[in-house]
Design goal:
By secondary structure, the protein is an alpha/beta fold. The chain is built from 6 helices and 16 strands. It has one domain: Carbon-nitrogen hydrolase (Nitrilase/N-carbamoyl-D-aminoacid amidohydrolase, 4-Layer Sandwich), CATH 3.60.110.10. The chain has helices spanning about 15-35, 65-80, 130-135, 165-170, 185-205, 255-260, and strands at about 5-10, 40, 80-90, 95-105, 110-115, 120-125, 130, 145, 150-155, 175-180, 205-210, 215, 220-225, 225-230, 235-240, 245-250. Helix 1 (about 15-35) links the parallel strand 1 and strand 2. Helix 1 packs parallel to helix 2 (about 65-80). The longest helix has 19 residues, at about 185-205. It starts with a strand and ends in a 15-residue tail after the last helix.
């Protein structure tokens, strides 16, 4: 398969798991009905609650999570490859959680798992500070997933500000890079489009970035504007503003080789010393 329809699910996840799973499932069905064979949901698909301590009682270990089996069954039912952008997962060996992305195949099996590496510990200028590392343990491994149609580099949200991760994934064979996100409105307005287009251009890869959008139950406001971007940096599809919904685009994987042939920068790396004066 060299050409497929890809879809981003844009959500406004709330503070209870069951309604979020139901909302995501409805949109996934809609995307599959439009012919999408690769469907991606945003970061924190099943639960978004940044209020201190409020999410903790609802987060369980992966083996006890009820949303993942529901999404696995849905992928099998629809015969699609499904990226669940992330789910908060309790860890058996410490108090912090994992912010974990799941790639699910059309047979319902989990192809790959990726734990978010870079923690969002920042002051964004909207009167709020974020200290993701207080609640989440950083991942330690980059992940390349082999889907039926090709290799996919898995990342999450704040990872997008660290281009070396994307370069490594592309050099390892990824033709598609996924960036499920819950970008704040302030940082999204300033940087969302330019960062994602840059990651596509510098790696010659498709970038698929499903996003959270709007004002959430916990008081957080996310930017929305889910994007699908070509290896040449063209925006193939974009969600309007921050409303829940879907976007679709045809992805021709031949465009990856074409872009990398025109600008072969992935093979032009050089080692060099740093001199400080």
């Amino acid at each position: 398969m060299t050409t497929l329809t890809a879809a981003c699910i844009q959500m406004r996840s709330g503070t209870e798991v069951a309604p979020n799973v139901a909302a995501a499932s409805e949109l996934i069905h809609e995307a599959a009905g439009q012919g999408a064979k690769f469907i991606a949901t945003p970061e924190m698909t099943n639960l978004l609650d940044i209020r201190p301590g409020m999410a903790r009682p609802k987060i369980v270990q992966e083996t006890d999570d009820t949303s993942l089996p529901a999404f696995r069954a849905l992928a099998e039912e629809l015969g699609v490859t499904l990226l669940i952008g992330s789910i908060a997962v309790a860890l058996p060996d410490e108090e912090r959680f994992a912010n974990r992305s799941f790639m699910i195949g059309p047979d319902g099996g989990v192809i790959a798992r990726y734990d978010k590496i870079h923690m969002f510990d920042v002051e964004v200028g909207d009167g709020q500070s974020y200290r993701e590392s207080r609640a989440y343990r950083p991942g330690t491994e980059a992940v390349l997933a082999t889907a039926p149609f090709g290799k996919i580099g898995m990342t999450i949200c704040y990872d997008v500000r660290f281009p070396h991760l994307y370069r490594r994934l592309a050099q390892a064979g990824a033709g598609i890079l996924t960036v499920p996100a819950a970008f704040t409105r302030v940082t999204g307005e300033a940087h969302w489009h330019v960062l994602l287009r840059a990651r596509a251009i510098e790696t010659g890869s498709f970038v698929i970035a499903p996003a959270q959008g709007g004002c959430h139950e916990d008081g957080r406001e996310t930017y929305g504007h889910s994007l699908i971007i070509s290896p040449w940096g063209e925006v193939l599809a974009e969600a309007d503003h921050a409303e829940p919904g879907i976007i679709c685009a045809d992805v021709d994987l031949h465009a990856v080789a074409q872009a990398r042939g025109r600008i072969p920068s992935l093979g032009n790396d050089r080692e060099f010393p740093l001199t400080e004066y």
